[in-house]
Amino acid sequence: MAVNPRSYYQCFVYIEANPMEPSGLYDWKDSEIQNRIEKYGYRYEEFGVYQRKFLIRRSEYDDGAANINGKIIDLDWRATESRMRYLSPYNLVIAAFANPLSNPAFDKTFEQIMNDILMGKASVEDLSRAVLDLPKRSFS
User: In the beta sheet, which residues pair with residue 73?
Assistant: First the structure.
């Protein structure tokens, strides 16, 4: 959703994504996922893909070796990709560097509004109103 509160420097793009199913590499309990969402606002898992077909745990990716079909395989880094999968809904904003959202003093409030949007306690319009209250960034 493109948001244009008033001036060009206040514009931003709000993106919201649906959660993905767990990869199956880890034994996540629904309660573990929910607890992490409640604590941090989101839950994700990291893993690797070897030769575009084998899923490997993040620790195997980091180690450069994985148990694939019962054999320990040295991973060729050129055939291994790192992946991250969000197990919860998540959102993000794309904004210009000069946007008031880039104000570090607003970080905590911004995080709260973003999490509240996901929980249905706030809206993108609330975020837009908050941006209007922020001072224009200066670069002196």
Answer: 66
Question: Which parts of the chain sit beneath pLDDT 70?
Answer: 139-140
Give the Cα-Cα-Cα angle 17, 92, 11 (nearest 5 degrees): 125
Whole-structure pTM value: 0.72
Task: Give the three-state DSSP class for 73.
Answer: strand
Q: Which two tokens stand for residue 126?
A: 């609330």
100: left (phi over 0), alpha (psi -120 to 50) or beta: alpha
Position of tokens 């893909």? 49
Q: Which residues contact 77 (CB under 8 A, 6 or more apart)?
A: 64
**CA quadruple 100, 106, 107, 111: dihedral positive or negative?**
negative
Q: Are 131 and 14 in contact (CB under 8 A)?
A: no
The residue type of 37 is I
Q: How far is CA 33 from CA 43, 79, 100, in A?
A: 6, 30, 33
Cβ–Cβ < 8 Å for 54, 66: yes
